[in-house]
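Objective 1b. Sequence-to-structure analysis of Transmembrane protein 230.
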Amino acid sequence: MPTRTSVTGSAHASKVRYSKLVGSDDGYIDLQFKKSPPKVPYKAIALAAVLFLIGSVLIIIGALLLTGYIEVSHPDRTIPVLIIGILVFLPGFYHLRIAYYAWRGYHGYSYEDIPDFDD
């Protein structure tokens, strides 16, 4: 049977670099914990822009009706136009503001904060 030679004494073995293995391998790798680049929810941003515009128009019309700049035959219908305008304007403004801040890269804002309806 051949004899073993010392590995540490060999010139070839001194050029080999070893790294210590992790004591416990739980099956995870670092790559799976990397965050992928954010997906921009274009449909949700477009919906927010439409809500913002419709809400703005309804608020302006409601304000003009309320002040009497536009003549109405039933003045009791001016307040609901203003209320509906505010209810439509607020979510549109909120989501557009988040989209703008995420686009500008402000800390604490991301596209993940905008609900995406593609699911």
